[in-house]
Amino acid sequence: MKQEYISGCFSDSIDYVHETGRVAFKDGSSVLADIIFHCTGSRYNFPFLKTNKIVTVEDNRVGPLYKHVFPPELAPTLAFIGIPYVITGFPMMELQAKWISLVLSDQLFLPSKETMMADTEHYYKSLEQQGIPLHRTHHLHRTKFDYPDWLANQVGVAPIDELIKKIFAQLFTIAFSSKAVRFREWDVDSWIDTSI
């Protein structure tokens, strides 16, 4: 059975969904869908975490977190993995886990609580000055690969492979373009530059 994928994150291109499962698009095309998976995003919530309001979630900003991982007041005994998004998720999370493990095993040391807090406040201030809202605190696409490269440097490994970076960048270029509504038409092989 042939599978076709359409992007639910561009629902404004959908004209209507018929009770038969046919999805009609504003450009006049349509597909018969077996499954419609509607993604609404995610909201951070840690109801099980009791930190006396040292760590809070305000408009989807988890903080304060030094480098999106350690709350300065509770580091290194509390750490978060996978908070940043719109970035190479699994490679980033692997690097975060390595960083945390090296800190917990006393092979790496965090800056002082005051230095971590100052760095975090500086980051938040820079977002504010750029007009970036709280709910985009952990949205890292705008910084490309600065964060995972910083993590790789901390743990002493090579940065994320350039080919992975290129594929990721191309994915987001297409995903946020008008071509994104038809995943089945993507020519992924054309993204790969064999000279890298």
TrEMBL record:
It comes from Heracleum sosnowskyi. The keyword Signal does not apply. GO terms for molecular function: flavin adenine dinucleotide binding; N,N-dimethylaniline monooxygenase activity; NADP binding. PANTHER family: DIMETHYLANILINE MONOOXYGENASE. It comes from the Eukaryota. Its cofactor is FAD. InterPro entries: FAD/NAD-bd_sf, Flavin_mOase-like, FMO-like. This is Flavin-containing monooxygenase. Its EC number is 1.-.-.-. Keywords: FAD, Flavoprotein, Monooxygenase, Oxidoreductase. SUPFAM superfamilies: FAD/NAD(P)-binding domain. Belongs to the FMO family.
